[in-house]
Specification:
Strand order of the largest sheet: 1-2-10
Number of strands: 10
Radius of gyration: 15 Å
Strand content: 25-35%
Number of domains: 2
Length: 126
């Protein structure tokens, strides 16, 4: 059981208990970018027991001057390369990128709470 997560800069709370039932909507759906830093690449490669070079070749795409996690197309959905539909969760959870760890507290959603609530059942009015 999790407590509600609060970030004073945002007009909502997050109930992480909802993650168990939502079907990974933050990891699936529309195509997007999950950018990773050099440190995150090291951690993910270590977790996958791969060299950084091999990890980059296998799991990342170059987007401008940054790297983003690849996606898998499943029907009409774009799933994060590490989203596992069998476990309904992240296959690299312990080393997931900061962008994933900070969801749903992204600047984009500060003024788009209604949109966020459609994606994430764990978002509650503060």
């Amino acid at each position: 059981m999790y407590d509600l997560v609060r970030n004073d800069d945002y007009p909502y709370l997050f109930d992480a208990n909802a993650c168990a039932e939502c079907g990974g909507r933050c990891c699936t759906g529309e195509s997007g970018n999950i950018f990773v830093s050099a440190g995150e690449i090291r951690e993910l490669a270590l977790l996958k027991k791969m060299s950084e070079h091999d990890f980059i070749e296998c799991y990342l795409e170059k987007r401008g001057y940054k790297y983003s996690l690849k996606e898998k197309r499943i029907g009409d959905s774009y799933d994060c390369i590490f989203y596992d539909r069998q476990i309904n969760g992240c296959a690299v959870y312990e080393a997931r990128p900061k962008q994933c760890r900070t969801f749903p507290f992204w600047d984009y959603y500060k003024t788009r709470v209604a949109e966020l609530k459609q994606e994430c059942p764990g978002v509650i009015d503060a």
